[in-house]
Amino acid sequence: MLIKYLPLFLLFILLLVIIYSFIFFEKTVSFDSIPSVKLSYNPVCNGSDRSPCVDSLGCSGERICVRGAWTGCINKKVCNPGERSNCIENFCSTGYKICNECGTGYSECIHPKIIQNKNETNNSPSLTVNLIVEQKIVNSSENKSEEKQILDFFKWVESHNIRLVGVNKSTDYFYYNGSKSDDFLDAKNVPNILEVAKGLYKIPDDILKAMNGKTVYLSYQHGRGYTVLSSFPEQHILVNMGRGSIIEQPLTEVQVIHEFGHILDYHGIRGIYNDKENHWADLDNERAIIFNVTFPYNPRALAPPRGYIDVYSTANDAENFAQHFMFYILKGQDFREFAKNDALLKEKYDFFKNKLFHGREY
Ligand SMILES: [Zn+2]
Fold it and tell me: Of 261, 245, 277, whose CA–CA distance to 325 is shortest?
């Protein structure tokens, strides 16, 4: 009788061992994974907190806490900024509405009659046509040198180990859906690409090394700039995206330098997400004091308070850093002028001049 049931008994024991070892293995893995999550930078948020924020266009959105650092600010778009759409009143189309500059909603309905009246008092259309024709003639003669400039720019980014890719999707899309191979296009044909060159050329190599191994995504879509601090597959955010910047139309050097300012700040100085280009870690404490924003942001303020170059730089410490970095390069003269009678602005200016730019001024 005992011998008859022995194989069954042994099988039961084996099953218990498998279940136990599985549970034990699971525990070991989760226990071991804790030290690897240990942060080498100061956490600024907890768990998977969510917090309202304002993006680089001053549009309100949301940011999420991942491994002790905030992802960039994102706002969910419902339409493309500037896009027209029919508006339906009492079941018939009575006019059109325009998507707001944040892409988060539409204007009130605009009735065609109002536009007609405006045109009667405005003789500018013919002037506009002339300007467009003139521009086209100039453009065709400049095409060749433009092509050469674009090729030179590609060689330059390669020599700086920066990846340049064209994309047909928006920041908003990439944030929620990640990227797939067919989202990528040849960057050479992306409109306004030379604006990106103009911006990046102005950053000294010694500072630009924060971009080493990173990507600049040049989008055909209209929108704003965005810094991809990392890809977060577990949170389904920015899946398959490389660290770097997404620059959207119209590409401008302001956008490029501002977004680079975030990379220098987050990765270069603060070492967020353990980036290997954390060369300026010794500036972290000083940066935290100089660029700290201690009051709530009021995007409708007509003028910035003392110590701030513009209203947007009061949004939070990260925007404070990126905006002043951008002004240091593109509006150096104005920055120096304002800093003459403003101790905090002078402190910010000197931080860039002495600690990052080794005395180089613009
Ligand atoms: Zn920004």
Answer: 261
Question: In which residue are the tokens 């935290």 written?
Answer: 288
**Which residues fall inside 5 Å of ion ligand 1, going by CB?**
56, 319, 322
Residue count of the chain, please give it: 362
Residues 6+ apart with CB under 8 A from 81: 99, 100, 101, 102, 103, 222, 223
Cα dist from 200 to 94, 188, 208, 315, whole Å: 47, 16, 8, 25
Q: How far is the CA of 257 from the centre of ligand 1 (A)?
A: 10
- The type of residue at 128 is T
> Minimum mean pLDDT among 99-113, 118-132, 219-233: which range?
118-132
Contact 77, 172 (CB under 8 A): yes
End-to-end CA distance of the chain: 95
Give dist(CA 172, CA 78) in Å, integer.
Answer: 10
Domain definitions of the chain by residue range: 50-76+160-356
What confidence tens digit (pLDDT) does each residue in 64-119 have?
Answer: 898 888 888 888 777 777 888 888 776 777 788 888 878 888 888 887 764 444 44
pLDDT tens digits, one per residue of 37-48: 567 888 888 888
Residue 129 CA to ligand 1 center (angstroms) comes to 36
What is the model's pTM? Answer: 0.74
Q: How far is the CA of 338 from the centre of ligand 1 (A)?
A: 22
The structural architecture, per CATH, of the domain 50-76+160-356 is: 3-Layer(aba) Sandwich (3.40)
